[in-house]
Fold this sequence. Notes:
This protein is mainly α. It is built from 13 helices and two strands; from the N terminus they run αβααβαααααααααα. It has a two-stranded antiparallel sheet with strand order 1-2.
Amino acid sequence: MTETSLSSQSFPMLVLNNSNAQPLIFFLTGIPGLKATQYWISIPFCLLYVVALSGNSMILFVVLCEQSLHKPMYCFLSMLSVTDLSLSLCTLSTTFGVFWFEAQEISLNTCIAQMFFLHGFTFIESGVLLAMAFDRFVTICDPLRYTTIFTNARIAKIGISMLIRNVAVRLPVVVFVKRLSFCSSMVLSHSYCYHVDLIQLSCTDNRINSILGLFALFSTTGFDCPCILLSYILIIRSVLSIASSEERQKAFNTCTSHISAVAIFYIPLISLSLVHHYGHSAPPFVHTIMANVFLLIPPVLNPIIYSVKTKQIRKAVIKVLIQKQFQI
């Protein structure tokens, strides 16, 4: 069944919920208006997925295998790589299922599971970026206490606290989505399940779902972003107090990779929100392509940035590649 027929077909006004005998089925959407070229458009997306998966796997591999990288900064970097890998894998199957095989059907439970992990890993990435900002702050502003602050036990606690925060804010969202009833239109506007997209199809009052979604957003990225900004204000103030211009430059250089990672995470997120709210005149395919690209920008660019900007990572990656070449 095609996208056009799904959207144009008239359904009886039937109210469906989880108490029905049959499971609820939704229909994912490819790229509206570009169905004829959808297969070819999917090829760049495929390349982006390959770069994201291979790049983050390489970063994770070198951090785990290279003894010199067993330091707090690189522990957080490996957390970032795991999160980016998970984000990419969350949407991989449904995106290419829709693009290549027109596998548009998805059950409500599968949709909710994908939504939970998709939003969850996005919020975890925000938390990892905050932890990395704190790492940079201590490195520059209080270097003598760095090893006593970032012990292995404390890094593990930071990681666990991010997971607990994510489950605590996402679980109520999932519970209340399960309570919604859905009417005739079961067509989602993306190739993956997105909370706002799903609750808009409900024919019952979804205000509590919107409130819970906003609370989850503001208690994670809404909290993390100002804290990251504050940490860099304090870092800049500390760096400017250094007398030597060479030392100032060296201190700033230690932050460039992280600043880039923060920018490529938050700028697309803000841009996508602005397009959704104010870009109503834009063609539907613009929203869809932007939504797919947004999910891939951080996983694709983060390993590239850290490989290029961080000398230790670059050396470790080159070392691994040379060793593999000699083995061949």
